[in-house]
Specification:
heterodimer; A: 461 residues; alpha/beta; Rossmann fold; 2 domains; four-stranded mixed β-sheet; 10 strands; 52% helix; B: 196 residues; 4 helices; globular; binds iron/sulfur cluster; iron-sulfur (chain A)
Chain lengths: 461, 196
């Protein structure tokens, strides 16, 4: 059973300092983020209308949020009309209670799960375990995390911090049917997972999923995935329970023409992900339940600056370009939402009561790379600055300053930060507004040349 | 009595967005993409996912299917055009997807720009389980089913039907971001494009 992030101790600086000392982790992360980054850039570059799609995506989300009440009511009507059942949950405990109740009503004691940030956010697996229900993760990465009794560290590639040798070890150690001669070839590891989960898929009666999008107009839910475990969970079990954040609704079917272009290219860096499933209510006779989750989202919505974080479609592009994430790793953020989006979403969802959550707005050098790649144009630096102004000052702030200092002081790190920033000169905020300007006055990046000297040296020399 | 979660959440939303500005949605992106050679582009993009692709004149499709399928025991979904049924497919009606070697289907729409096939469980496309469980999927795409981009596909599709968008074989990049074909869905995808 993977551990839960809820109530994770520490703060960002302490957690990240630990990660930075782990050279294997740093190597894995760097390799992975740079690979996806390159793929994303090339498939985004193929579309002549990327900026227009991005503008539309941003506006569709803003319009949805503006009338979220109306669209949720409409969604409830359309899902119900198509034979589905809609439940509302104010917080994690209420959502977990609803799901546990639905599972118990089927008489089953096991559920299969397809990766979902929302169910991780509410700690559903642990809540189900407390009710005697076992939840089996079926994504390869989630399986690695669950078997390794570990935390996910990336939105898209939750086991990004593990290399193939470590994965092999985990499988041999914890997977009872792992073949003894298992090698660390990715194909062999994938095959072991396929065999391990096959029977479970075929016999499971209940599945739990999230959704990437819900269409108010038609009552349709949409899940994007790669492996086919999503299709297995969504299709084969008799009962399907989807737990989805209220901000995931889209007004019209047509809106998918925008998001089915923005999301795959931004996340896996593919023209399209291998599988996308859509279903409306009770499909092919399945018993379908939709649990609409608030859990702090309406608080975020009430904040004029911070509410843009609710546009997020969880593509993870901002993680992959973030110089701080690349060094600190996902675990340092102490939440299921790591990286730049986590730094603005977690403190808003959970409040800034804990030292960890109050330190998150400082987990950034404000270089602006995240904003530039975000497919729904969330101005993450703007929200970070705003949250810093709102955060309780004192310990968290002092600690946070050390993080930014750490990223920028070391020569090698500075080089990377400059390279990232060089492409984005226009966007780099030079000074923070208000009382924090004293902070930036002493720590402002030097003028950032289009190509850093170091890059020029490597290219010419 | 305390208010229901539904009423609570809706009330909180209304308070949160009270007075927020209205939003215009600019749709200046391409709703019809241009491509001179849809078949060629689709074939190239499907191939990029490491699927096997053939472009075949419509009249030769039955013979080609028979040759490709060979001795494999295939699921034959209801409504598959008679000529597309492999000769040694087990009798009338679909084979059991849990024991079959593969499945042969048509599709609802295909997208050239992204190399995507969309199934909507209509005639000749099988149930979702039939196209998921077997390890091999042979899909016949008629040239007139290929559209250029995603917006055209979305407008052709019926949201009331369960849809499966397929772009290449099942894959994972979870291990050091190496794309490995075939985890839970069919490990081999073969596409036959039928041209007039
Ligand atoms: S904030 Fe933007 S870039 Fe980051 S995960 Fe969300 S949508 Fe993607």
């Amino acid at each position: 059973m993977s551990a839960t992030f809820l109530g994770m101790p520490g703060n960002f600086p302490k957690n990240s300092a630990r990660a930075v000392q782990d050279s294997q982790l740093r190597y894995n992360l760097r390799k992975a983020t740079h690979t996806i980054r390159g793929k994303r850039a090339s498939v985004v570059g193929e579309l002549p209308d990327w900026q227009e799609l991005r503008a539309a995506g941003k506006a569709i989300k803003d319009e949805t949020l503006r009338h979220l009440d109306r669209y949720l009511v409409q969604l409830e009507e359309t899902v119900t009309a198509a034979g589905g059942h809609v439940h509302w949950a104010r917080d994690a405990a209420e959502a977990n209670r609803i799901v546990a109740g639905l599972v118990k009503a089927t008489g089953e004691r096991e559920v299969v799960k397809v990766k979902s940030m929302a169910t991780q956010e509410i700690g559903l697996n642990e809540a189900l375990a407390a009710e005697g229900i076992t939840a089996y993760e079926t994504d390869l990465a989630e399986l690695i995390v669950q078997l390794g009794d570990d935390f996910p560290s990336h939105i898209l590639v939750p086991a990004i911090h593990r290399n193939r040798a470590e994965i092999r070890e985990i499988f041999l150690d914890r997977m009872d049917d792992a073949p003894p001669g298992l090698t660390d070839e990715p194909a062999a590891l994938a095959e072991a997972a396929r065999v391990h989960l096959r029977e479970r898929f075929l016999r499971s009666k209940v599945a739990v999923s999230g959704a990437n999008f819900m269409v108010a107009e038609t009552g349709t839910l949409v899940v994007l995935e790669s492996e086919g475990n999503g299709r297995m969970c969504l299709t084969l079990p008799e009962t399907l329970i989807s737990v989805v954040g209220i901000e995931k609704v889209l007004p019209t079917w047509r809106d998918l023409e925008v998001f089915l272009q923005l999301l795959p290219r931004s996340s896996t860096g593919e023209r399209m992900n291998p599988y996308t499933s859509t279903w409306t209510g009770s499909a092919e006779g399945q018993d379908f339940h939709l649990v609409l989750l608030d859990n702090g989202r309406t608080d975020v919505l009430a904040d004029e600056v911070g509410r843009q974080a609710l546009r997020c479609i969880r593509c993870s592009a901002c993680l992959n370009v973030c110089p701080v994430y690349e060094r600190a790793g996902g675990h340092a953020y102490g939440s299921v939402y790591p990286g730049p989006i986590g730094a603005i979403l977690t403190p808003q969802l959970r409040g800034m009561g804990s030292e960890l959550d109050a330190s998150l707005p400082y987990a950034s050098s404000l270089c602006g790379a995240c904003y530039d790649v975000c497919p729904v144009a969330i101005d993450i630096p703007e929200v970070l600055v705003d949250l810093r102004a709102k955060a309780p000052h004192g310990a968290a702030e002092r600690a946070g300053m050390r993080v930014a200092g750490w990223v920028l002081n070391d020569q090698a790190r500075l080089a990377a930060a400059q390279r990232a920033a060089g492409r984005l000169r226009r966007l780099v905020p030079r000074r923070l507004p208000g009382p924090l300007s004293a902070w930036t006055d002493t720590r402002d990046l030097p003028g950032i040349p289009e190509e850093s000297f170091r890059d020029w040296w490597e290219r010419e020399g | 009595m305390s208010r229901s979660a539904r009423e609570d959440i809706l009330a909180r939303i209304r308070r949160a967005v009270d007075g927020a500005p209205e939003v215009e949605i600019p749709r200046r992106y391409r709703v019809t993409a241009e491509a001179d050679d849809l078949v060629g582009l689709f074939a190239e993009r499907v191939g990029d996912y490491r699927a096997i692709v053939h472009v075949v004149p419509e009249a030769e499709v039955p013979a080609r299917i028979a040759a490709i399928v060979g001795g494999r025991r295939m699921v034959v979904p209801d409504g598959l055009p008679a000529g597309w049924t492999p000769p040694d497919a087990p009798g009338a009606g679909p084979a059991d997807p849990y024991t079959a070697d593969g499945v042969v289907t048509g599709c609802a729409v295909a997208i050239a720009e992204t190399g995507t096939i969309v199934l909507d469980t209509g005639p000749g496309q099988g149930s979702r389980a039939q196209t998921l469980v077997p390890d091999y999927h042979l899909c016949v795409v008629r040239a007139d089913q290929i559209v250029a981009g995603v917006p055209e596909a979305v407008s052709r599709l019926d949201p009331a039907r369960p849809l499966t968008w397929i772009s290449g074989p099942s894959a994972t990049s979870d291990i050091e971001l190496n794309r490995v074909e075939g985890v839970h869905g069919p490990r081999t995808l073969e596409v036959l494009i039928a041209t007039p």
